[in-house]
UniProtKB/TrEMBL annotation:
Taxonomic lineage from the root: Bacteria, Bacillati, Bacillota, Clostridia, Eubacteriales
Membrane-crossing residue ranges in chain numbering: 12-37
Membrane topology: Single-pass membrane protein
Protein name: Prepilin-type N-terminal cleavage/methylation domain-containing protein
One GO cellular component, as annotated: membrane
Pfam families: N_methyl
Length: 124
């Protein structure tokens, strides 16, 4: 008879204690994952900046090769960097750029992205 009474009056659902335990477990998991996510986001930003620097480097090489075919022998680094941006598809995220030219060839390209990450190619 006692069993019959318990089954009829017991409601389905979670108790307050069970809900608090679940919330605590979720909070602990978030606390463990959050530092890893910030690290991965920073690594992704750096990789994006390095990729943009490599694109600028390759585009600057193309500009120098094109100008060399047209007979130009001396190059202004800022002009080459500006012209090279025309070869890069998604250059809106690049806030500052610089190209170093040595002996008529591109020696280094450096960029700063709009999120503050900076990259260089070749990597040093």
């Amino acid at each position: 008879m006692f069993q019959k009474y318990l089954t009829k009056t017991r409601k389905k659902g979670f108790t307050l204690i069970e809900m608090i335990v679940v919330i605590a477990i979720i909070a602990v998991l978030i606390a463990l994952v959050a530092p890893l996510m910030t690290k991965y986001i920073a690594t992704a930003r750096q990789a994006k900046a390095d990729g943009a620097a490599k694109s600028l480097y390759t585009a600057a090489e193309a500009v120098i090769a094109e100008e060399t075919l047209n007979g130009t022998t001396s190059f202004v680094e800022s002009d080459v960097a500006s012209d090279a941006l025309g070869y890069i598809d998604n250059n809106s995220a690049i806030t500052s750029k610089s190209v170093t030219i040595s002996d008529g060839a591109v020696a280094k390209a450096e960029v700063t992205m709009d999120d503050g990450a900076s990259g260089a190619y070749p990597l040093s």
